[in-house]
Amino acid sequence: MGWVESLQKAIDYMEDHLLDEITIEGIAKQANVSEFHFQRIFSVLTDITVGEYLRRRRLTLAAQELSTTESKIIDVALKYGYDTPESFAKAFRRQHGITPSQARNYTGKLISYNRLAIQVNLKGAEPMNYKIVEKESFKVVGVKREFSCENGENLAGIPKMWDDIHVDGTNDLLFELNNGQLKGVLGVCVDKRAPGSPLMDYWIGTDHKGETPGGLLELEIPASKWGVFEVHGAMPDAMQNTWKQIISEWFPSSHYQHAGTPDLEVYSNGNPSSSDYYSEIWIPLK
């Protein structure tokens, strides 16, 4: 099964089980990837989390049912996963801007989030500069924090972590310790791999040869074949746009698959707000 087909299979599974209690583990199995990688791919492509997609779709269907049937509001609330009419009304109003009763009485506009269908561009309008390299295992030294991928916790927590290491001087220290092949400070996502676990470790570190300085941790990056993609432009938009291009264009049109080991984002020692700032994305391939 191809990459696009497996991702669409996972989305179809979500749609077929909108009224059930489904897990990230069960969804990711449909795409034959880990929970971590599925959530990351999904959020990169859609700019929302899996949980948010399910919530939006359920509330869309709930609104349609209220406006076209005589079903009681309490019954609709329970059907779409809400324990009380109050919690349902709160979520309903947050999405649609009106109450369930107003939807029943046709007063006010409804917001519809439609079923996703994956479409990829096999030929991108913008060229991608990349190379394939082989690299032996190496050591990253730095700091790490654990995040949950549920409800976008990692999406909010990781930028905060970067802010913290700039304030406390860790970023400058890592550039001073950088004496390996990869030049810069690295952002590394590590899948915890426990079945059903939404947890991940995020590292900010650098390629370092020698003893690990006190106060820092070390992470062994395994030997791999890497796809190294150039990123040009200000952060964070340039990095996010390149990730989208890799996932939606490059992977579907290449014969490579993700190897399942950590990705690397390599940030150079420049002004990340500059339009000519240079960084890289390193993806392990098989």
TrEMBL record:
At the top level of its lineage, which domain of life is listed? Bacteria
A Pfam family that this protein carries is HTH_18
Record InterPro entries: AraC_E-bd (IPR010499), Cass2 (IPR029441), Homeodomain-like_sf (IPR009057), HTH_AraC (IPR018060), HTH_AraC-typ_CS (IPR018062), MarA-like (IPR050959), Reg_factor_effector_dom_sf (IPR011256), Tscrpt_reg_AraC-type_HTH (IPR020449)
Instruction: Give UniProt keywords alphabetically.
Output: DNA-binding, Transcription, Transcription regulation
Instruction: List residues of the HTH araC/xylS-type domain.
Output: 8-106
Is DNA-binding a UniProt keyword of this protein?
yes
UniProt entry tagged with the keyword RNA-binding:
no
Q: What is this protein called?
A: Effector binding domain-containing protein
